[in-house]
Amino acid sequence: MVLHWLMALAILGLFGFGIYMTDLPFSPTRLKFYNWHKWAGISILLLSVLRLIWRITHRPPPLPAAISKAMPGWQLGAYHATHHLMYLLFFAVPLLGWTYSSAAGFAVVWFGHIALPDLVSVDKALADLIKPLHKLSALALVGLAVLHLAAVLKHLWIDRDSLLQRMLPGHH
């Protein structure tokens, strides 16, 4: 539950920060913000690893029987597909960003102290190919997060069931 909320806040915050920083004029501040963006992306990647390990070793409780029974098959399918795609993008977005930095010749130095290895050799053509993929995958992740939130609000306001309570502190 903690990883869910921490990652949700980090991903949405980093997405907004990424949009903001790309519109800045070239300056030392913009370069500093790009480094911060990379630090946060690597941190999200590490949180994603922890979250995946947790999910593999701690299966989530099944949907409450009443909710599962009332939910049409397509909604159950969308529920599972959305979660699987989000997990895929938890890894794809930061790995594409890291690969772009490597291909563009920009080192990733986590928190300014831990130099991470380049994932690929410097290759401008590859960097030009990967840069939009990083952006599109980030947009897809945020789009899925918005869809996820819309489903939560549907359950809260329309279905009036207890699905949201499963993800609130103090409720299991």
Describe this structure in words.
- It is built from five helices and two strands, in the order H-H-H-H-E-E-H.
- It is mostly helical and 172 residues long.
- It has one domain (2-167): Fumarate Reductase Cytochrome B subunit, CATH 1.20.950.
- Strands 1-2 form a two-stranded antiparallel sheet.
- A hairpin with a 3-residue loop joins strand 1 (109-110) and strand 2.
- The longest helix is centred in the last third of the chain and has 36 residues, at 124-159.
- It starts with a helix and ends in a 13-residue tail after the last helix.
- The model has no long low-confidence stretch (mean pLDDT 93).
Give a nutshell description of this structure.
With 172 residues, the chain is mainly alpha-helical. Helices cover 73% and strands 2% of the residues.
Task: Report the portion of residues in β strands.
Answer: under 5%
The number of domains? 1
What structural class is derived from the secondary structure elements? mainly alpha
What is the typical, i.e. mean, pLDDT?
Answer: 93
Write down the Rg: 18 Å
Strand order of the largest sheet: 1-2
Give a topology summary:
Elements: H1 2-22, H2 28-57, H3 65-70, H4 73-104, E1 109-110, E2 114-115, H5 124-159
Antiparallel strand pairs: 1-2
Helix pairs in contact: 1-2, 1-5, 2-4, 4-5
Q: Could you list some keywords that capture this structure?
A:
5 helices, Fumarate Reductase Cytochrome B subunit, mainly alpha, 172 residues, 2% strand, two-stranded antiparallel sheet
